[in-house]
Description:
It is built from three helices and five strands. It is α+β, with helices and mostly antiparallel strands. The longest helix is centred in the middle third of the chain and has 21 residues, at about 55-75. Bound molecules: adenosine monophosphate.
Amino acid sequence: MSSIFTRIINNEIPCFKIAEDANFFAFLDINPNAKGHTLCIPKKEVDKILDLEEETYMGLMAFSRKVGKAIEEALDCKRVGITVIGLEVPHAHVHLIPLNEMKEATFQSKVKLTTEEFEEIAAKIRAKL
Ligand code: AMP
């Protein structure tokens, strides 16, 4: 069965999309550590990031860099943290988290956003790409 992220790529599940190219896809995390918390994924479904082919791994990092710079420009944050975990969803992904405080990097403290807020944040980031 396809991962939830493959279903997002295939438009079977909605998301707040940030960017897409031939091989990669970015969208807002639905349970964010901070406003603008974004996930970047390869379209090819592979569970662990270190199991990606080197070219895909490097491509994912370059794509994440581009999206991360747009987040930094679009939102009020000190910097964008980059984290890889993968304990919840078995489809390799990079977390890009706009950081002002250490607690936002911990995955223990979450923010609740309305659909309108998600849409507004996604539009701000997209405008900087
Ligand atoms: P992890 O696999 O531990 O790196 O975490 C997976 C992340 O995916 C979590 O931060 C979830 O909030 C996020 N997530 C799970 N399902 C969705 C979804 N349908 N849309 C956006 N983000 C999701």
